[in-house]
Amino acid sequence: MNAAAGHNPYCTVGCALVASDGIWRNVLRLLMPYALVLSTGLVMAQPYPTKPVRLVVPFSPAGVADFIGRVTAEKLGQRLGQNVVIFNRDGGGSVVGTELVARSTPDGYTVLLVSSAFTMNAAVSRQSPFDVRRDFAPIGLVFEGPGVLVVHPSVPANSVQDLVAYARANPGKLRYGSSGVGSVINLVTELFKYQAKVDITHVPYKGVAPAVVDLVGGQIEMVMAGISIATPLVKSGKLKALGITVRKRSPVLSDVRPISEQGLPDFESSTWYGLLAPSATPPAIVARLSTDLAQVINSADVRERFASQGGEARSSTREEFVALIDSELRRWQTVVKAAGLRAE
Asked: I need a labelling partner for 29 at 20 to 30 A (CA). Which of 15, 54, 119, 310 fits?
């Protein structure tokens, strides 16, 4: 064989390599989809969690929310086998920290502690930077506590019925304090006014503490306070407790009847806390967190520690938490409309 016959002796090896290279490219092209599936499966099969989890508490340190968050973080971390680290991000009535989680990577390593203010804020604000339904995946409930209707000792009322009768006879004379327009205290008191059909003047403060200080001092007459704040002031005689906001008595104020037993049978409001994740968090991770959280909340140690705050540990399924958020949002939207409230 020679070049004249159409054969190039120098092409034999080179042409074979070129042909071989083309074959391998075709083989790799065919195998690529299967390689991607395999690699994705390996990533998804990695155990969760493999690093610390951040629990965002959208409230300042040292309050009830911070206490609940730290107890939950400690015990949940033990279940997960990784540290759960508290990250306090206060501001905007919990909006700042909540938005932070809504925009976080949905990988299960950032979760959020929310309170009943979560649905109240959504009911009041028309320009929220997040959507309470669309942007979050509910994990489960953590805690539920009652509020207590407290008045200054000078108020001529020793029961809810007395207070309602006095308010009707003196429209606008009673003043109630809150931690601001759209706050938990504001909306709960507006719910009371709506159901009792009374006119009581709202005096907003920059926090519940200054409102309670003015209540003790007699500058205002009434506050729907958290039970942990109100109890020592009631027991010392500085305030009078007229009613509990939930349908059962509290062990720490056992002689105070629920408001629902004092002429307002439909009245009920509690302060609850729960955990959320960003909405696109993988369902398997949300399920793992939900299962472990329920185990934590149902433990005797957590129940005892939460009872010290005047409330109780409350676990739930994800579905039950979703239903609670939906029902709370509808209820507070009704109250906001009736009271004509708008966020400041």
From this structure: 15
